[in-house]
Each structure stands twice: as C-alpha cells, then as structure tokens.
Write a structure and sequence with these properties.
Layout lengths: L12 H7 L26 E5 L4 H6 L6 H13 L7 E4 L6 E4 L2 E4 L4 H18 L3 E5 L1 H8 L5 H4 L4 E2 L5 E5 L2 H5 L4 H22 L1
Parallel strand pairs: 1-2, 1-5, 5-7
Antiparallel strand pairs: 3-4, 6-7
Helix pairs in contact: 3-8
Length: about 200
C-alpha cells in the first residue's frame, strides 16, 4: 500500500495540505498524533527535504521546530539563507517512534514506509517546482536519490534528481545535534548549505 490514493493530482498546496491528515498509506498514522505537512512559499526557489517529523513536530504540527530545527535555523543564518523564503518538508510525514517509559524515541522509517509516503513528496515537488533541492539525511536521500546513494560520500556536491532538479545532499541537522565533534560537523553542515546557495545562483 502507498499514499497514492490519498494524494490529489490536481489543485495546489492548499488542497494537498487538506488531504494529508486522511492518509492511511502506511501504518504510521496509527500512533502519530498528526501528519506534518511541509511549510514555506509555494513557489520557493529552494526546497529542503528532511527525514521525518520528530516528537516536537508531531505535537506542534509544524516542521523543524525541535532541537534539529533550532540548529537548522542557526545554520541557515550562517549560510545566508532566509528560512521564510525556502520550502521545508520531510520525506515521511508521520513520526515513527518507540516508547521508552513516557518518552517517545525516534525510529528511522523503514524502506516500505519511505516508499509509501513518496507520492506526497512527489506532489510537493510538482507544486513548488524548486530550482534546487537540499536533501538532508539518509531517509531523504533514499526517497530522492535511491537506496545506493551515500550521503557521507557525496555530500556537498552538485547532483540531479530524477525529475531534473539540481540538488545538494547533506546530513540531517539532528546528526549534528548528536555529534561528539559538534563545531566541526556544524561547520561542514553550513558549508554544504553554502554550496546550495552558490548552485542556486547558477540555476535560477
């Protein structure tokens, strides 16, 4: 099963967002509090694709509002990117987790869940038509660049998505939050975003 039957293939972002809460394309909807839609200008030149909502995003209903989101905000500022001008979304729209006492601990979505949710991301790309896509983390890379792509090997390089969009891959900001070499890895993350800025200037 995939989300295909729930994704509207006409209309714009308002219709897409309205239909998202009804999605039953995989089992993640059963435990998550909500489906978390992408946010940002509908005609943004740059789209940033993360992996999946976290605990904060699931509770608040907005993308990148937890610790990873706060770090992303700082990195965007360092790279000279205005968050209000980019479209932010995730490859998987529901939070996958396991319980540890009262805490909900993030679990990486399975390949099947990534595939099931892909029609939502495809439609977002069709509507927004970004000139450049920043692919953040392994889940987003699997969704957009295939299962054989390795972020660690090809981060910060100019890439092309199957749909023809120029792209840059980097780590997910949550990996930087957890890093034992924070200053180094934050700097590398910012450098990847700066590459995205330079490429955007070339393709717009």
């Amino acid at each position: 099963m995939t989300a295909e039957e729930w994704v509207p293939h006409d209309g714009g972002m308002r219709k897409l967002r309205a239909r998202l809460p009804d999605c039953r394309g995989c089992e993640l909807w059963e435990d998550a509090e909500r489906a978390v839609a992408g946010e940002g200008p509908v005609r943004a030149e740059m789209m940033l694709v993360g992996e999946t909502p976290g605990d904060h995003e699931d509770k608040e209903g907005h993308v990148f509002v937890g610790p990873a989101g706060h770090l992303l905000d700082k990195a965007l500022v360092e790279a000279g990117i205005d968050r209000s001008k980019v479209y932010l979304t995730n490859a998987v729209k529901h939070f996958r987790f396991e319980r540890e006492g009262k805490r909900r601990i993030h679990k990486t979505p399975s390949a099947g869940q990534i595939t099931a949710c892909h029609p939502w991301l495809t439609r977002e790309l069709e509507i927004v038509k970004p000139s450049l896509v920043v692919v953040m983390g392994a889940v987003a890379a699997k969704a957009l660049l295939g299962s054989k792509f390795r972020v660690t090997q090809d981060r910060g390089k100019r890439l092309e998505l199957p749909g023809g969009q120029t792209a840059v891959a980097t780590v997910h900001p949550s990996a930087v939050v957890r890093s034992q070499e924070f200053r180094r890895d934050f700097g590398r993350f910012v450098d990847d975003l700066r590459v995205a800025v330079k490429l955007l200037d070339q393709v717009v």
